[in-house]
Amino acid sequence: DGLNLSWNAISGTYYGGVDDVGFLSALIDTINRDYHINLNRVYSTGMSNGGFMSYRLACELSERIAAIASVTGTMTDSMIYYCHPSRPVPVLHFHGTTDPVVNYNGGGGITPVSTALQYWVNHNNCPQPGDTTQLPNTNTTDNSTVSKIYWGTGDEQSEVIHYRVQGGGHTWPGSGNNFFGVVGNLNMDV
Description:
The chain is α/β, with parallel strands linked by helices. It is 24% helix and 19% strand. It contains four helices and six strands; from the N terminus they run H-E-H-E-H-E-H-E-E-E. Strands 1-2-3-6-5-4 form a six-stranded mixed β-sheet, with helices on one face. The longest helix has 16 residues, at 20-35. It starts with 19 loop residues before the first helix and ends in a 24-residue tail after the last strand.
């Protein structure tokens, strides 16, 4: 029936259809009204399209979103072009290097993970280069390993942290499964 059940965060629907940024901003207001939340501690996380949407919120609602975490989602070329956050936004990013759904190296309007992270490292004024450490390979049967790249601390105590899953697919590391079915290697070291 043509019903779109995803966030309008990917190129082509970025400014079309439902106003998801407005909806999520109104949702924050509603939750605060009903439950009196700490408005300085509102975070966004998501996998795949939800990760793209978290980046979009960092760009467009930086005054309301304390930090984001994206799993297998990155930014689009148009998102970076239009991204003008009003403050530094801490970023945590998990991504497999062999993700067959959201290519680690980008393409087709999808920004490479390294380019998206560099945008936030620069915006947050984090120290460069980042420190890279290898996480212990606690599960030797998952055909993947994890390195952590850490850029911090930038302006307003912001950090950018990337868990690069070498050989990892389009999965939520450590989950045992994911909503889409396992697409590629599922890392269990995290």
